[in-house]
C-alpha cells in the first residue's frame, strides 16, 4: 500500500494491531503462566499475574527417569511419543494431501473433466459427515486389515480432514493465476506437465504454503480419530487429556503439556508466515 | 494341555514342593510382596503370553502399575497397560467391546457400564474361573470382599434385562468409593460452623458461611450433564428421602422420579444447591470439586471419600485439614444413605488369552496387592475387609493428617450400598435426570420438570 | 464516481476473465485427448483416497435404519422409525435450532472479524508487519485439549475473564454456567479460535490484488472506502466464501468445543446435534438412534454447503 498516512492514523492503526494481538494471544499467555504456577495458585481471586514461577510441572511432564519418583503417580506420563506421533501423522497427512490434491485442484481449475463440479462437490462432501458416524465400522475394518494403530492408517484417515481443503484452496488460487501465461508457454511448445511445474507452482507457492499451514493445524487439532483408531500411535490431543489424574495436581501440569504441544505449530507458523508475505502478487506477473 | 503338564509336575515334585512351602512361609512372615503364601496354584501356567490391560487414568491404576514387575516375575506374563482419561475411556471401551475386538484382555469397568455390556455377552462371566482350583488360589478368598460389593457385581441376565440377587459374577472389585461429606475443618472451625447433617441444615450453614466470607464456596458438588453427578451427592441423599430411581409396580419397573417423596427431595436439594454450590455448578466435574477442597476455596464437598484422603496425604497443600462425615440425610429420617462406585476388573469376552487374563485379575485384586496399593496411599478404598483389619494399613490411615477417615469409613460402610436399580438402559435415564437437575437449579419448576423427566424415561422404557 | 470508469480500471485479469467465461466450453486444442487422460489421472487419486470412507458412510446410514443398541445381540431393521421418533420430540428441534444458531452466528462473526483482521494486518504500519505471525496463533490450540482451560478461564467466581471484565466495571458474567449465556460463550470460543482461519485466507487474497488497481482507483477519485467496497471486496469475496464453506461445515459438525466445555448443557441450551448424537450413541448406547441424528446432521450440512457453494460460484462468475 503506497498510500501515505497521517501519523495519527498510523498510530491508531498500531494501537488497533496491538489490541488485536493482545486478544489473539491472551489465552495462550494465560496458559503459559498457568504452567509455571502451582495448583493452589491457579484459581485464586484476584488472579495472580506476578508470582514465583516454577518449572516443576515441566519436570513432571518429562520425568522419564524413574516412574514413581514423581508426585504425579506411578505411570510414566510419556509425553514425547505422542508429540512425535502427531508430527508424523500431521506432516504425513499434509504431504499426501498436497501431492494428491494440488493436481486435482489444477484440473478442476483449468481443465474440463466430465462431471467436474460434481466431483469437486463430492470431494468436499467427505467433510460433511461427522466422524463419529463412521468411526465404529472404521475401527472394525482397520483392525481386520491391520491398519489399526499404524501411521499409514492414521495418515489415510486424516485425508478426510485435509484433502478436500487443499483441493478447493489450490483450485481457488490457481483460478486467480492468469491463464494466458500457460497459454503462451503451451503455444511455445511446452508440455502441460512442465508448464505446471515451472510456471504454475512457483506462482502458487505462497498460497500453497498458507493452505498447507492451515490444514496442518487442522490435522493437529483432531481428537476423535486419534482416540479411536490408535493406541500407541495416539496423537498429542489424546495424550493431553491423560494428564487428568485424580490423585495429583492436574491443572498446571496440563497447562505445561499444552505449552509443550504449542511449540511445533508456533515454529511452523513463524517460518511459514515469511513465505506468505513474499510476492503474493499474481497480478504483477502480467 | 498346560493343565495336564502342571498336574504331572505337581505329582512328581511333591516333597520338594512341601519344602518350598515351608521356606516360602518363613519368607512370607517377614513380609514379602509375594501374594501366594500357600502356593497351590501354578502361577506360571501361562508363561510367555502377553495381555493388554485397559483402565482409567486413576490412582488405582497407579497402584497396580507400581507392582507390575512383580507380576511379571511371578507368572512370566507380560502386561501392557492402556490407560485413558475418563470419558475417552468409556468411549473406547464401548467401541472395543461391542465390535468384539480381541485387543483388550482385562478391562476396568464400573457397575453401571457393566449392566449395559452384559446382555450382549461382551463380558466374560468369572464364576468359572473363581471356582476352578487350577486357576484360583485357595488363599484368594473371594468372600473377603465386602458383601455389598460382591452383590453389586453379581446378577443374571434374563430376557435382555438385569436381574440382581444371585447369578454370575461379572467383575471383581478392585477399588471402590463410598459417598461421604468431607470438609475443611480449619474453615468450619474458623467461622464456627457445625457440620450439617440434613439439607436444610446445610443451607443454613452455607448462608452463615457466605455472610462471613463471600469468597469461599460453601459446598462443592458435581453438576455436569451426566449421571456421574447424580451418583455422588444426589442419589445418596435422595435415597434417605425414600426416593428410588425405579420402583416395582405390578411386577414391572416404573420410574420413581415423579413420586411425592421425589418432589420433596428435589425441592430441598435444589434449594441447597442454589444457596451452597458454586455458580459454575452446571460445569463442575470432579476436577473442580477436588481443586476447591484442596485449595480451600470450597469449604465442604459431598463426593467420593478418597478425594479427601488423597488430599490429606503429607506434603499436599491441604494435608491434615480435611475431615470426614456421613452424607446428608432427610430431616425426617434417622439414617443416612451412601452410594458406592466400584472400579472392578472384568474380562473381555472376545479375549483370546482368558487364562492369563484371569491370573492378572486375580493377582491385582489379591489381598497383598490391594494392601500394598492402600499403604502406598493410592488404592483407597480397598474392597477387601482384610485390608481394613490389617495393621499396616490401619497404622498408615490412622496418621493424624487423615483425621477421622477410618472411623467414618467404617460407620458409613455399614450403610453403604448401590443406590441405583440395576437395569440395561440405566445411562439414558440417569443422564436425563442430571439434565433435569440442571434445569431445576436454573429456576425451572420442580414439579413440572420432574413430570417431564418421568414421562421421558417412561417412553424410553 | 463513474461505475463504468471503475469497471474499466479493473485490470487484474481481463484476459483471465475472458478466458474464464469460456471455462464452461471444453478446451479445444490439438492434444485434447492426451490432456483429458492426464486430467482424469490427476483427479483420480484424490477420489480413490477418499472412496473407502464412502462405503462406511453408507453403512452408517444403514445403521440408522435399525434399532441397534450396543450390548444387545439382536438387531432389527426398523426403517424410518428412528427418524420419525426424533421429529416428534421437542429436544430434537431445540438441537436443530442450537446447531443452526451456533454455526450461523459463528461463521458470520468470523467472516466479518476475519476480513477486518486481514485488512488491519495487511497495512504496512510497523506493528502490523511485526505481528503478522500472531494471526494464526489461536489455531495452535486443539479445542478438545483446551476445553478444560476455557472452563477455568470462564469460571464465574474465579475465572480470569471475569476478572478482566471486572476491571472495566462489568460484574460477574455467567459464561457457560447459565443457559442464557452458554451459547454465546461457545460462539466466542469458536470465533477466537477460527477467525484466524478466515483472516489467513482473506489475507492471501488481499495480497493478490495488484497495487496498480488501487492506484488507478485512487487516481480516478475513489476514496478508501469506495476502493474497498467496489474493488477489494468483490475480489476477495470468493475467498471469503471458500473459507465460509469450510467453516460452516465444521461448525455445523462442531463437537470438540461444545462437548469439552458444556457437554451440551446447562440444561439443553447448547445441545447441538453432534453432541446429542454422541450422547445417544455412545453413552445411552442407542446407536441406531444416534446414527439417525448424525445422518440428519449430515443432511443439514449438505444443504448448507450446497447453498454456500452455489453462492461462491455465482460470486466467482461475477468477479471474473
TrEMBL record, chain A:
Q: Please give one Pfam family short name.
A: BPD_transp_1
**InterPro entries in the record, alphabetically?**
BP-dep_ABC_trans_perm, MetI-like, MetI-like_sf
Task: Tell me the membrane topology, using the record's own terms.
Answer: Multi-pass membrane protein
Major localisation: membrane
| Highest taxon above the source species | Bacteria
Q: Where in the cell is it found?
A: Cell membrane
The UniProt keywords, alphabetically, are:
Cell membrane, Membrane, Sugar transport, Transmembrane, Transmembrane helix, Transport
Q: What is this protein called?
A: Multiple sugar transport system permease protein
Taxon lineage: Bacteria, Pseudomonadati, Pseudomonadota, Alphaproteobacteria, Hyphomicrobiales
Amino acid at each position: 500500500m503506497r498510500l501515505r498516512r497521517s501519523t495519527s492514523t498510523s498510530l491508531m492503526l498500531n494501537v488497533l494491531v496491538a489490541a488485536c494481538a493482545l486478544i489473539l494471544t491472551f489465552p495462550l499467555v494465560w496458559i503459559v503462566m498457568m504452567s509455571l504456577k502451582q495448583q493452589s495458585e491457579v484459581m485464586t481471586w484476584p488472579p495472580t499475574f506476578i508470582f514465583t514461577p516454577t518449572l516443576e510441572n515441566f519436570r513432571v511432564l518429562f520425568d522419564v527417569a524413574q516412574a514413581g519418583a514423581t508426585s504425579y503417580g506411578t505411570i510414566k506420563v510419556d509425553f514425547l511419543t505422542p508429540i512425535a506421533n502427531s508430527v508424523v501423522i500431521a506432516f504425513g497427512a499434509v504431504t499426501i494431501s498436497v501431492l494428491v490434491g494440488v493436481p486435482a485442484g489444477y484440473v478442476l481449475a483449468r481443465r474440463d473433466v466430465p462431471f467436474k463440479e460434481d466431483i469437486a462437490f463430492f470431494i468436499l462432501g467427505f467433510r460433511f459427515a461427522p466422524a463419529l458416524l463412521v468411526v465404529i465400522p472404521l475401527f472394525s475394518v482397520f483392525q481386520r486389515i491391520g491398519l489399526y494403530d499404524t501411521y499409514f492408517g492414521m495418515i489415510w484417515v486424516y485425508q478426510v480432514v485435509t484433502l478436500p481443503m487443499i483441493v478447493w484452496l489450490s483450485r481457488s488460487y490457481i483460478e486467480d493465476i492468469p491463464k494466458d501465461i500457460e497459454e503462451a508457454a503451451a503455444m511455445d511448445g511446452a508440455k502441460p506437465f512442465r508448464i505446471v511445474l515451472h510456471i504454475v507452482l512457483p506462482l502458487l507457492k505462497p498460497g500453497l504454503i498458507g493452505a498447507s499451514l492451515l490444514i496442518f493445524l487442522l490435522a493437529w487439532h483432531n481428537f476423535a480419530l486419534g482416540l479411536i483408531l490408535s493406541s500407541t500411535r495416539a496423537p498429542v490431543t489424546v495424550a493431553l487429556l491423560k494428564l487428568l489424574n485424580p490423585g495429583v495436581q492436574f491443572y498446571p501440569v496440563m497447562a505445561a503439556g499444552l505449552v509443550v504441544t504449542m511449540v511445533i505449530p508456533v515454529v511452523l507458523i513463524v517460518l511459514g508466515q515469511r513465505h506468505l508475505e513474499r510476492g503474493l502478487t499474481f497480478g504483477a506477473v502480467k | 494341555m498346560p493343565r495336564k503338564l502342571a498336574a504331572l509336575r505337581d505329582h512328581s515334585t511333591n516333597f520338594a514342593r512341601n519344602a518350598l512351602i515351608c521356606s516360602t512361609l518363613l519368607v512370607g512372615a517377614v513380609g514379602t510382596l509375594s501374594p501366594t503364601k500357600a502356593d497351590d496354584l501354578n502361577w506360571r501356567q501361562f508363561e510367555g503370553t502377553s495381555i493388554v490391560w485397559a483402565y482409567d487414568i486413576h490412582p488405582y491404576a497407579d497402584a497396580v502399575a507400581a507392582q507390575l514387575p512383580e507380576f511379571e516375575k511371578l507368572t512370566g506374563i507380560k502386561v501392557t497397560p492402556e490407560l485413558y482419561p475418563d470419558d475417552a475411556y468409556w468411549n473406547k471401551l464401548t467401541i472395543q467391546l461391542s465390535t468384539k475386538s480381541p485387543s483388550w484382555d482385562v478391562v476396568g469397568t464400573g457397575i453401571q457400564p457393566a449392566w449395559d455390556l452384559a446382555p450382549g455377552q461382551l463380558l466374560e462371566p468369572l464364576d468359572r474361573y473363581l471356582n476352578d482350583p487350577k486357576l484360583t488360589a485357595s488363599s484368594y478368598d473371594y468372600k473377603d470382599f465386602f458383601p455389598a460389593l460382591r452383590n453389586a457385581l453379581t446378577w443374571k441376565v434374563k430376557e435382555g434385562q438385569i436381574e440382581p440377587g444371585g447369578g454370575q459374577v461379572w467383575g471383581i472389585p478392585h477399588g471402590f468409593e463410598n459417598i461421604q461429606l468431607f470438609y475443611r475443618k480449619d474453615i468450619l472451625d474458623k467461622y464456627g460452623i457445625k457440620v450439617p447433617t440434613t439439607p436444610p441444615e446445610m443451607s443454613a450453614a452455607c448462608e452463615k458461611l457466605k455472610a462471613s466470607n463471600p469468597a469461599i464456596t460453601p459446598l462443592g458438588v458435581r453438576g455436569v450433564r451426566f449421571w456421574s453427578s447424580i451418583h455422588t451427592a444426589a442419589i445418596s441423599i435422595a435415597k434417605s428421602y425414600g426416593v428410588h430411581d425405579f420402583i416395582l409396580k405390578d411386577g414391572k419397573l416404573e420410574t420413581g422420579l415423579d413420586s411425592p417423596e421425589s418432589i420433596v427431595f428435589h425441592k430441598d436439594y435444589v434449594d441447597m444447591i442454589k444457596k451452597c454450590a458454586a455458580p459454575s455448578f452446571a460445569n463442575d466435574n470432579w476436577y473442580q470439586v477436588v481443586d476447591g477442597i484442596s485449595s480451600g476455596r470450597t469449604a465442604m464437598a459431598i463426593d467420593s471419600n478418597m478425594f479427601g484422603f488423597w488430599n490429606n496425604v503429607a506434603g499436599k497443600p491441604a494435608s491434615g485439614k480435611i475431615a470426614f462425615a456421613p452424607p446428608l440425610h432427610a430431616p425426617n429420617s434417622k439414617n443416612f444413605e451412601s452410594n458406592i462406585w466400584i472400579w472392578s476388573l472384568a474380562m473381555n469376552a472376545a479375549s483370546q488369552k482368558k487364562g492369563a487374563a484371569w491370573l492378572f485379575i486375580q493377582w491385582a485384586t489379591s489381598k497383598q496387592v490391594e494392601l500394598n496399593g492402600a499403604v502406598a496411599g493410592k488404592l483407597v478404598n480397598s474392597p477387601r475387609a482384610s485390608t481394613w483389619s490389617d495393621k499396616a494399613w490401619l497404622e498408615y490411615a490412622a496418621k493424624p493428617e487423615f483425621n477421622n477417615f477410618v472411623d467414618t469409613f467404617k460407620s458409613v460402610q455399614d450403610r453403604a450400598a448401590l443406590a441405583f436399580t440395576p437395569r440395561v438402559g440405566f445411562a439414558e435415564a440417569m443422564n436425563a435426570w442430571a439434565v433435569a437437575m440442571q434445569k431445576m437449579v436454573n429456576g425451572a419448576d420442580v414439579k413440572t420438570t420432574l413430570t417431564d423427566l418421568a414421562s421421558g424415561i417412561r417412553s424410553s422404557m | 464516481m463513474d461505475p463504468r470508469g471503475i469497471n474499466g480500471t479493473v485490470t487484474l485479469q481481463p484476459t483471465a476473465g475472458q478466458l474464464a467465461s469460456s471455462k464452461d466450453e471444453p478446451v479445444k486444442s490439438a492434444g485434447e485427448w492426451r490432456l483429458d487422460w492426464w486430467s482424469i489421472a490427476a483427479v483420480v487419486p484424490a477420489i480413490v483416497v477418499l472412496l473407502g470412507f464412502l462405503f462406511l458412510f453408507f453403512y452408517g446410514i444403514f445403521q440408522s435404519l435399525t434399532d441397534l443398541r450396543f450390548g444387545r445381540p439382536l438387531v432389527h431393521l426398523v426403517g424410518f422409525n428412528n427418524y420419525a421418533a426424533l421429529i416428534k420430540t421437542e429436544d430434537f428441534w431445540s438441537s436443530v435450532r442450537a446447531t443452526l444458531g451456533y454455526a450461523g452466528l459463528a461463521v458470520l462473526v468470523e467472516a466479518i472479524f476475519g476480513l477486518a483482521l486481514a485488512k488491519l494486518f495487511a497495512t504496512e504500519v510497523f506493528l502490523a508487519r511485526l505481528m503478522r505471525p500472531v494471526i494464526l496463533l489461536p489455531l495452535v490450540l486443539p479445542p478438545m485439549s483446551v476445553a478444560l482451560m476455557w472452563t477455568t478461564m470462564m469460571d464465574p467466581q474465579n475465572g480470569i475473564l471475569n476478572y478482566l471484565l471486572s476491571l472495566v466495571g462489568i460484574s460477574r458474567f455467567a459464561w457457560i454456567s447459565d443457559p442464557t449465556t452458554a451459547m454465546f460463550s461457545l460462539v466466542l470460543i469458536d470465533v477466537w479460535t477460527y477467525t484466524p482461519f478466515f483472516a489467513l485466507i482473506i489475507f492471501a487474497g488481499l495480497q493478490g490484488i495488484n497495487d496498480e488497481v488501487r492506484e488507478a482507483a485512487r487516481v480516478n477519485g475513489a476514496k478508501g472506502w469506495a476502493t474497498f467496497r467496489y474493488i477489494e471486496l468483490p475480489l476477495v469475496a470468493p475467498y471469503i466464501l471458500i473459507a465460509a464453506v469450510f467453516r460452516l461445515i465444521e461448525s455445523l459438525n462442531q463437537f470438540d468445543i461444545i462437548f469439552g466445555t458444556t457437554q451440551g448443557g446447562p440444561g439443553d441450551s447448547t445441545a447441538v446435534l453432534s453432541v446429542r448424537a454422541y450422547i445417544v450413541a455412545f453413552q445411552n448406547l442407542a446407536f441406531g438412534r444416534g446414527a439417525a441424528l448424525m445422518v440428519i446432521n449430515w443432511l443439514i450440512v449438505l444443504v448448507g454447503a450446497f447453498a454456500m457453494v452455489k453462492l461462491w460460484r455465482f460470486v466467482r462468475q461475477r468477479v471474473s
